[in-house]
Amino acid sequence: MLKDTYLRCRTCGNSFLVTSAQRQLLAARSAPLPERCPACSALEGLAERHTGRLVRYDRSRGFGFIQDDAGGSVFVHASALGLRRGARPPVGSPLTYYVEHTERGLRAVAVRVSDQPLLPGAPSD
């Protein structure tokens, strides 16, 4: 019997779950395990990744803003960072991400933090 497995997305670097039922379906089709999380798979071919730097992050509220290298400000929620609770990238960290257009403005999704260390429980800026 196959077990649930966590994999790391090769696009955004976030962990995602592949259930035992999904693994059985893939095995029945002789298909490999997915290399991308569902969010990145959905975005594949639809958009290109943007680059920018984290300019503000409020850890207590779980969101911040990215200054896009092409200009403009993009909202980022903690869930898009895929980090453990309370961790955050340092302000100024280079990021790559996809942009989603919402009725409230631009929102970063499938965010990948560069190789800089995270600041666990660091105070918000």
Shape from CA axes? elongated
The secondary-structure class comes to alpha+beta
Gyration radius from CA atoms, angstroms: 16 Å
Number of strands: 7
Distance between the termini: 48 Å
What proportion strand?
35-45%
Show unreliable segments.
116-125
> Strand sequence of the main sheet, in spatial order?
3-4-5-7-6
- What is the CATH top level name of the largest domain? Mainly Beta
Regarding quaternary structure, how should these chains be classified?
single chain
For the record, the count of structural domains works out to 2
What level of helicity do the residues show? 10-25%
Spell out the helices and strands N to C.
EEHHEEEHEE
Q: Just name the CATH architecture of the largest domain.
A: Beta Barrel
Number of helices: 3
Largest sheet: 5 strands, mixed, barrel
Walk me through this protein's architecture.
- With 125 residues, the chain is of the alpha+beta class.
- The protein folds into two domains: 5-37, no CATH class; 50-113, OB fold (Dihydrolipoamide Acetyltransferase, E2P) (Beta Barrel), CATH 2.40.50.140.
- 15% of the residues lie in helices and 37% in strands.
- The protein is built from three helices and seven strands.
- It has helices spanning 20-28, 38-43, 78-81; strands at 5-8, 15-18, 50-58, 63-68, 73-77, 94-102, 105-113.
- A hairpin with a 4-residue loop joins strand 4 and strand 5.
Tags for this model:
two-stranded antiparallel sheet, alpha+beta, 15% helix, five-stranded mixed beta barrel
